[in-house]
Write the structure tokens for this entry.
Amino acid sequence: MVIVKSPREIALMKEAGRVVGLVFKTLEEKIHPGMSTLDIDAIVEKVMLDNDCIPSEKGYYDYPASSCVSVNEVLVHGIPSSKRILKEGDIVSVDIVATYKGYMADACRTYKVGTVSERADRLVRVTKEAFFESLKYVKAGNHIGDISHAVQTYVEKHGYNVSRDYTGHGIGSHMHEDPSIPNYGKEGTGVKLTPGMTICIEPMVLEGRKETRVLPDGWTAVSKDGKLTAHYENTVVVKEDGYEIITMYEGEE
Ligand code: MF3
Ligand code: CO
């Protein structure tokens, strides 16, 4: 069941989204070679708590941390660890969810650690561009399949693959609500978009083959072929004539 949000609910989600943006603004300046993925988690947690938000990944199906921090071949759900030290040339995605007064916002960025290879740079760029490409189709009357198709087409045109194992989703008072938003699909299919729907569009892109596997920790999802992966996500409000992104900070590119 797709839940359309009231203006009051959207206002609360926007405050959660503002804090998500603030976390990204902070991380943008702080991520550097030599820090651990647990250091990133500590920053995420502090910025959220200092701003009256709850880091809501912690405890979700017993997930142990305030963020998912996924390096290189880790596509999603990397568990922060003091032993995982970032090095120059890594790409690291940070996926976070904040709750403000019961309402959530969810987003992800893939950061470059120091200077990265042209190969890594292009993957990160195309993943982000796939999100913005799909946004062109977000407005009342269009379908989820239009978003899915736009992501898939853009990613494959650049020689990459989208994951079939993880999808975007609706969001509100729960992290994952209907509808599911795959990164592949057919135009004109699926749920129709209506004003007040709040959705997470999140291209998860693999440089090589599309297959993933989960490590024995039960969370960490890696590319089966060990090649690079990237992830970009925002929470978006559907409007009559378009959309509003609620998880970017002012001035963010
Ligand atoms: N934030 C992720 C998403 O984009 C889900 C994280 S799962 C958790 O949907 F267990 F870490 F919370
Ligand atoms: Co999400």
Q: What stands out?
A: Residues 7-245 form a domain with the Creatine Amidinohydrolase fold (CATH 3.90.230.10). Residues 7-30 form the longest helix (24 residues). DSSP finds four helices and 15 strands in the chain.
